[in-house]
Amino acid sequence: MFESCSDPSALHGLSWMLCYLTTGKHMLFYGSFGIVLILLAITAPVALIFGFGGALAARSALWPFKLLGRGYIAMVRGVPDIVFFLFVPIAMDQGLEYLKSRAVCADPGPAWTGNEFHVCAAAKIPLGSSPQIYHEIYGFGLAVIAFSVVYGAFAANVLFGAMQAVPRAQLETAEAYGMTRAQVNRRVLIPQMWAYAIPGLSNLWMILIKATPLLFLLGIEDIVYWARELGATKSQIYAFPHPDWRLYYFLVLLVFYLLMTKLSEVVLARVNRRLAFGQATAAGEALRKAGV
Amino acid sequence: MKKLILTAAILGLTAGVAAAETVRMGTEGAYPPYNYIDDNGQVAGFERELGDKLCEMEGLTCTWVTNDWDSIIPNLLSGNYDTIIAGMSITEEREKSIDFTQAYYPPAASAYMSMDPNVDLKGGVVAAQTGTIQAAHVAESGATLAEYATLDDTIAAVKNGEADAVFADKDALVPFAGTDGMEFVGEDVPLGKGIGIGLRKSDTALKDKFDEAISKMKADGSLNTMIKKYFGEDALTFN
């Protein structure tokens, strides 16, 4: 990066360290923190939408929706996360390529033969000739979906519980005013349930932050991958040889995750307070007494 | 008019790209000097140079992909990439699930390394990388096998006393000799049938192309030159 870094073997002390920490590889490491943050930024809202849909479906008066909602919650919550993370991306990838192969291949034979999954080159997603970046975005997309499905189920359960926790008297009053079921949901139930949902959702957010290293399992070059790669012993074959430094790299990750969770706690505490305002809950009552 | 020329140019370009066959080369990126990630974050090493050369000879467009060693065969089979070029020895066990080209590196010597020159290699704890021929050999030798995900973990295990010795490809161990008192111990053991490029059994056309290119490089001696460049003058070569 810097002019002075062109000959690493001549460097010592601080200038060696400065050059070492600005190699192309380290830039990829710093960039991978962005990947984790992007994953969180996309997964959290998508999982919330999944959860919202699941909770509404589970409460629905129509039995097919009810079955779908309850089934989704029960199934995903019951299967170990890691199995789901390994299963969803592979199943989706092969499923999509299988469907595409039926559409675009001239002579689509059986896709699963022996121990191989084989479709014609034109049915590959992304195409084999696409730049590596598309492959990475695609893999990342599959990971986001896997995360969203899993955390969506937990969110659905939290929201379902929160909807049940809204005092029945509130809903009855709304019904007495002649509101339809949809109107009751929209005007009374949903605005009030957030106060009950936030503690559960904030818990889920914390777990989601801590689950991001699972990206590494899905073959995505995230912070854990780079920490392990950069920290590993570097022999003389590398421009910047050093002994096993994984401990220090993982220490950096530890600090990163602690900062993330601390920051989240502060923000979530404020959101919690804001939502409790004027609610018929113990927290809302405490705010009222304090004269806020 | 300008737009038309531009469109035509783009069409021409993309058509050209589509015509050349693209081969995705899968490697581990954690096994220097065979393959590793250099300081710019690119795949480098003996296999990178060899792979690029073979692709050039056969007119293939090659891109490089890294994958964990543990799942390198399953991900080849499910089509994430088209070849495994990752210092993988040709063994009967692996030939049951995938095909190999002819060897591009002769059967390499594996060696033990330890901090204790009098270590008991038959009865002690020996570290090896999971799923390698060395791990299989240790299991048969009577020593207690301690498996680790990467080569680096096996070295770390010896250094912190979890294992008495490490057993791995000698070439991969050479850089660690002399660090923290690590030295080669015992006899070298030749294992496997050499190192080849792993391919899906259905990819016979690609296998033929690589076989042909490797034969050419063996014939004109350029393969031996490349081996010597990465593994030193004393390295095993093809006659």
UniProtKB/TrEMBL annotation, chain A:
Alphabetical keyword list: Membrane, Transmembrane, Transmembrane helix, Transport
Pfam families hit by this protein: BPD_transp_1
Source domain of life: Bacteria
Residue stretches spanning the membrane: 27-52, 72-92, 137-160, 247-268
Cellular localization per UniProt: Cell membrane
Alphabetical list of CDD domains matching this protein: TM_PBP2
Location (main, coarse): membrane
InterPro entries referenced in this protein's UniProt entry, alphabetically: ABC_transp_permease_HisMQ (IPR051613), MetI-like (IPR000515), MetI-like_sf (IPR035906)
Membrane topology: Multi-pass membrane protein
Domain ABC transmembrane type-1 intervals: 33-264
Similarity comment: Belongs to the binding-protein-dependent transport system permease family.
PANTHER family per record: ARGININE ABC TRANSPORTER PERMEASE PROTEIN ARTQ, CATIONIC AMINO ACID TRANSPORTER, MEMBRANE COMPONENT
Protein's recorded name: ABC transporter permease
Species: Thioclava marina
Lineage: Bacteria, Pseudomonadati, Pseudomonadota, Alphaproteobacteria, Rhodobacterales
UniProtKB/TrEMBL annotation, chain B:
Record keywords: Signal
Signal peptide segment: 1-19
Keyword Signal attached: yes
InterPro entries in the cross-refs: Solute-binding_3/MltF_N (IPR001638)
Source organism, top-level taxon: Bacteria
Key word RNA-binding present: no
Positions of the Solute-binding protein family 3/N-terminal domain: 22-234
Name the UniProt record assigns to this protein: Amino acid ABC transporter
Organism: Thioclava marina
Lineage summary: Bacteria, Pseudomonadati, Pseudomonadota, Alphaproteobacteria, Rhodobacterales
